[in-house]
Design brief:
Helix content is 56%, strand content 14%. By secondary structure, the chain is α+β, with helices and mostly antiparallel strands. It has two domains: 157 residues, Butyryl-CoA Dehydrogenase, subunit A, domain 3; 116 residues, Nuclear Transport Factor 2, Chain: A, CATH 3.10.450. Strands 2-1-6-5-4-3-7 form a seven-stranded mixed sheet. A hairpin with a 7-residue loop joins strand 4 and strand 5. Helix 9 runs antiparallel to helix 10. The radius of gyration is 21 Å and the shape is elongated.
């Protein structure tokens, strides 16, 4: 085995952990894969003979890559990835994935990703690496170019916001359901004005690749455009809990085919995510809500 193959083999042993870190930092599986691939490229070009802890070195690299990606996203003023349905998969489904099991044991669910998107890039890195992956503050400080005390303060501030948002999310579930049900009723009845009443003026609808292949638009923006898209439709969609968040599902014969994730702020829908990829749907915790 040559040196490149040996290094690649060692990297693969760390891939599940690195992907879990990147996923929690970025919120989508595709971006997480990009970050991990960038870590491999940097490893293949680096002199690692003096690296005693390759796992720690790679975690630092992935953290920096993710931080750069988050800052780029923020500088472009892109819409935050704050739908209730971020990409659900962070690891293999077959067998036992220690990183995934650890996250689930700590009560880390999909809804947390929504809250993480409200944090600044520095807060998110400090919170994710320290609270979820036990990375010491002195290492986090190096990534951020700040002191360990400053890194600790960032994590503490992020922790308070996460805890507060999680509590608020539970309290608001009834109001969220009311908004979703009003949206579905207006959609079924083709009531354009009623749709506008529950949509934020800057609402955005995003569809995954499978939904686009089935005829959905990849992205629709603005209340009038979204209302026109949904008016007279969603006739068979039902309110549902999707990984604990209020959304809707089209499930003919009891088989989920399309899931609608709603982001609701101040009683109005600011984002709708349409998921139709069978593998992704299979990984969601879905429960149709009774009328």
């Amino acid at each position: 085995m040559d040196e490149h193959d040996w290094l690649a083999e060692r990297f693969e042993t760390h891939r599940p952990h690195l992907r879990a870190v990147a996923y929690r930092m970025l919120g989508t599986a595709s971006e997480a894969d990009d970050a991990v691939q960038e870590a491999w490229l940097r490893l293949s070009r680096a002199e690692t003979g003096g690296v005693d802890n390759l796992g720690g070195w790679l975690t630092t690299v992935v953290g920096r890559v993710c931080l750069d990606m988050l800052r780029t996203r923020q500088s472009r003023r892109e819409e935050p990835l704050d739908a209730h349905l971020p990409d659900p998969d962070i690891g293999p489904r077959d067998g036992i994935d220690p990183e995934r099991e650890a996250l689930l044991a700590e009560g880390v669910g999909q809804a947390l990703l929504v809250v993480l998107d409200t944090l600044t890039p520095a807060e998110r890195l400090a919170f994710v690496l320290h609270d979820m992956f036990a990375v010491p503050f002195d290492r986090i400080a190096v990534m951020l170019g700040r002191s360990p005390a400053a890194a600790k303060m960032l994590a503490s501030r992020a922790r308070r916001r996460v805890q507060g948002a999680a509590l608020e999310q539970g309290v608001d579930r009834r109001r969220q359901r009311a908004v979703v049900e009003a949206f579905l009723a207006a959609s079924r009845g083709g009531d354009f004005d009623a749709l506008l009443a529950v949509l934020d003026p800057d609402v955005v609808v995003r569809a995954d690749r499978s939904a686009v292949q089935a005829g959905a638009s990849a992205e629709v923006r603005g209340a009038a455009e979204v209302a026109s898209t949904f008016a007279g439709r969603a006739r068979l969609a039902q309110p549902a809990l999707i990984d604990g968040a209020v959304g809707a599902v089209w499930a003919p014969g009891g088989q989920p085919r399309v899931v609608f994730g709603f982001t609701i702020t101040h009683g109005r829908i600011v984002a709708i995510d349409i998921l139709a990829d069978p593998e992704r749907l299979d990984q969601l915790d879905l429960a149709v809500l009774d009328d």
